[in-house]
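Input record (one chain):
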Amino acid sequence: MIKAVIVDVDDTLCLTEATSFVLENEVLAAMGRPPMSRGLHLANWGEPLLEAMPKRSPGIDLERFGPLFHDFMRRHVADGRIDVIPAENLAALDELVLSGRTVMLLTSRTGPEIQHMLAPDHVLTSRISGIYHRDNTRHGKPDPRAFDELLAHTGLSPAQCVYVGDSPGDANAAGGAGMAFIACLQSGVRRLDEFDERWVTASINTFPEVVATVDKIGGAAG
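The corresponding structure, as predicted from the sequence alone:
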């Protein structure tokens, strides 16, 4: 019985790789550094930002990059250029909640990178019961222990949860933790054949398909 649907943020709940690529290059330009290529950005997309940036821009000063990135991020959020959750995805979250399921987010972002989604007036506030990120969990994906705090806080078992994500690392974390996993392929960044088939319970081409897919996997919430 699936009681909780745990959702990844980037390229699952909202499409962010392309906009993040633009944002990060704007920060690099402000630092006087050359832009990265899209291929380089895609190569380690899904890794925590400050772990990925030395590969995307070798020799970068992370202590300078971090504050600049957050400044640019705030502007992009305020301008509606990033982290815009489509109405149909919000409707899907509503359906999951109405079915009696708990909805939570688990992301590789840090607290400051997700802070705007924690605001009391954010569209997610009434729809999700918690956001787990790199600053309130001891382990990050693809480590299966990324779910430890969530499971401890909720008292749920892995068998009662399904994780929805877009990357092989998401699948490895969920599968290793004993959870069902739904691969969301909407962004086009990953193909299904890139995933370890052992960990993929189902795949969807658009996020709203998650409602019917969760019903198929786990039946009515109890």
